[in-house]
Specification:
Length: 446
């Protein structure tokens, strides 16, 4: 059944958001699981292999989050066209967006293969580890096209109002990666043992399958491929990149900023960094609900904007904000009561326990505000106004978090660093809410 009609512009708002968020939660948890599974199996190869994949992790995440920005841009223009009821425009934007994605994949493959050795040498990888990194990244870069295309296609399908299909495909990819990892890494069932290269090949295979299936949904079910080259392709690319590039840039810069915080914590020793790492991984699972909801708010806002249904946008944001505040309060209580035993599942070192538990005592008090920030930035991107969204994200990091983290460390140690995260979330969350109120005025004037 085709979903290119504006299915998010009618019906109970709360029910729509709930129905679409659930499958996305499963998909996001599954994608988080891919990285954990890879890390687990590679750790069985020894310390050098684990060090190699640890070096690759920030680079692969930066590239993935950059691609997510392009996907957000594509979803924004597609969802608004769906809301306008212009099927031909939807077809053109989807086709042009996927062609841009293929071009991007080619550029990333070329640059990635060309920069493996100098980049990871700069990051501090020694000769033995660099050899393993090269084995892993050469396969990963060759397959990056599948990762890029599948992620953008998932965004397109969500923009049409279907969150179930991408969620299922994400979970299927994670399951396939789980099955293939030990087979390719250790050489089971007659396959050769490929070591760390096998981990990359497993991910490549899983993403290639999800890419083919997601493209089949777009081409066969939705019939959204425009077979002839459109003369206005550069106009489509301009629309997509106007939203996608600021979003991609802010995603990358935010992750670079987190590296600065890690560097600050490193002055307290490796165990402090380990505690922070454990706490943020627990946090990632807890906040997956926000990531799922924000990925749904975008298509919801875009379709209703295209249909001119401003009141539905405002009501959807109000419901999302309330949920974020309640979920944040729930998490703060849970972590206040159970942070230490949760951290203890990963490590029993006293300093690690102390650092991670303290983080999970302080920062979750601001999760509700962080959720409001995420909903606001997603809404702005969907409305085709990426600069306020980028401003909010960068303000959180570079006006509040990092400067306050430096001051906090100087006067209060790692407690001050965690307090900086709390303050940054609270202030930018409050400012996001005020911008929502301001947006209610200028949307009416648009």
């Amino acid at each position: 059944m085709k979903t290119t009609n504006a299915i998010l512009t009618e019906g109970p708002i709360g029910r729509i958001l709930f129905r679409m968020t659930l499958p996305m939660m499963g998909g996001i948890y599954a994608m988080i699981g891919i990285f954990l599974v890879d890390t687990y199996f590679v750790s069985r190869l020894g310390t050098l292999a684990l060090a190699a994949i640890s070096f690759t992790f920030p680079i692969t995440m930066i590239l993935i989050y950059f691609v997510m920005g392009i996907g957000i841009g594509t979803a924004s223009v597609v969802s608004r066209a769906v809301g306008e009821g212009d099927h031909q425009k939807v077809r053109r934007l989807v086709t042009d967006g996927l062609l841009l994605t293929v071009l991007l994949a080619g550029v990333l493959t070329f640059l990635g293969l060309w920069t493996i050795k100098p980049l990871f040498t700069f990051l501090g990888a020694q000769r033995d580890v660099l050899t393993l990194i090269n084995d892993y990244m050469r396969v990963w870069y060759i397959g990056i096209g599948f990762i890029v295309i599948s992620m953008v296609t998932f965004n397109i399908i969500r923009a049409l109002g279907d969150a179930t299909s991408p969620g299922i495909l994400m979970m299927f990819s994670a399951l396939l990666n789980l099955v293939l990892d030990p087979i390719f890494i250790f050489g089971l069932f007659g396959f050769p043992a490929l070591g760390i290269k096998g981990a990359a090949l497993a991910s490549l295979t899983a993403f290639s399958v999800s890419t083919v299936l997601s493209l089949m949904i777009v081409a066969k079910r939705e019939k959204l491929f425009w077979l002839s080259l459109d003369p206005h392709i550069f106009r489509s690319w301009k629309e997509i990149l106007y939203i996608g590039l600021p979003s991609a840039t802010s995603n990358v810069i935010i992750h670079l900023a987190i590296a600065v915080v890690v560097k600050l914590l490193a002055t307290f020793g490796e165990k402090a960094v380990a505690g922070f790492g454990i706490a943020t991984r627990i946090e990632a699972f807890a906040l997956a609900v926000y990531f799922a909801l924000s990925s749904i708010i975008g298509p919801f806002v875009g379709q209703n904007w295209g249909a001119g249904k401003i009141q539905r946008i405002q009501e959807g944001l109000r419901l999302s904000d309330r949920f974020c505040l309640l979920w944040g309060l729930f998490l703060a209580v849970i972590f206040a009561l159970f942070a230490r035993p949760l951290v203890g599942l990963f490590d029993q070192n006293e300093l690690v326990l102390a650092v991670a538990s303290l983080y999970l005592l302080i920062v979750p008090l601001s999760y509700g505000a962080e959720g409001v920030l995420m909903m606001t930035t997603s809404a702005f991107n969907a409305l085709g106004r990426p600069l306020p969204a980028t401003f909010l994200s960068l303000t959180r990091m570079f006006v509040f978090y990092i400067p306050l983290a430096y001051l906090g460390k100087a006067y209060f140690g790692f407690i001050g660093i965690f307090a900086a995260a709390f303050i940054a979330n609270i202030v930018t969350g409050w400012f996001s809410f005020k911008l929502q109120e301001a947006r209610a005025f200028w949307v009416r004037q648009a």
